[in-house]
Amino acid sequence: MPEAGKVPGTPRKKTIAAGPKPAASRRSQKAEPSALDRLQSVIVGSLEDDKAENVVTLDLAGKASFCDRMVIATGLADRQIVAMAEHLSEKLHKAGLRRIQVEGAAGADWMLIDAGDIIVHLFKPEARAMYGLERMWGSELDEVSQA
Fold first, then answer.
1. How far apart are CA 120 and CA 81, in angstroms?
2. Domain tally for the chain?
3. Which residues, other chains included, contact 50 with Cβ-Cβ below 8 Å and sequence gap of 6+?
4. Is the residue at 108 inside a domain?
5. Which residues span the domain enclosing 129?
6. C-alpha angle 79/39/113, rounded to 5°?
């Protein structure tokens, strides 16, 4: 006869029988920002510190396979754009990101920083208007495709 108080079965079955975690611990986890939100906060904060103009964040989850979010910002001069990219790379590295890819560092009108799940585009005003990434990936695209 099994002893009273002992539950028969494997450790896995015992875990399943124990059920989910209490609701209080699940609520506290949801209150914390996700890693993606923290990364976005570092990026937007860095760009705002460097006086980037018209900073826009687009949610691309489910729309693109290469990233979950896109941040687009404008700098007025080549030097400002290069400085924003350098500062952003340093801050992302301090935040724990190890593989940061930077494209267009040769003084172009457009620089791209690949921070994994978030892609950052830094433009001069003319280039930003010409490429129109907000129109390409923004909510207007969803409205057109649903019609």
1. 12
2. 1
3. 75, 80, 83, 84, 87, 88
4. yes
5. 34-146
6. 35
Which of 131, 1, 109, 4 lies closest to 56, judged by CA?
A: 131
CATH number of the domain residue 48 falls in: 3.30.460.10
Which letter, b or e, does each residue of 95-121 get, where b requires 16 or more Cβ atoms within 10 Å of its Cβ?
eebeebebebeeebbbbbbebbbbbbb
pLDDT in tens for each of the 147 residues of the chain? 555 555 566 665 555 556 555 544 444 455 567 888 888 889 999 999 989 899 998 887 877 778 788 899 999 988 899 999 999 999 999 988 888 888 886 667 889 998 888 889 999 999 888 888 877 777 654 444 444
Q: How many CB atoms lie within 10 A of CB 82?
A: 19
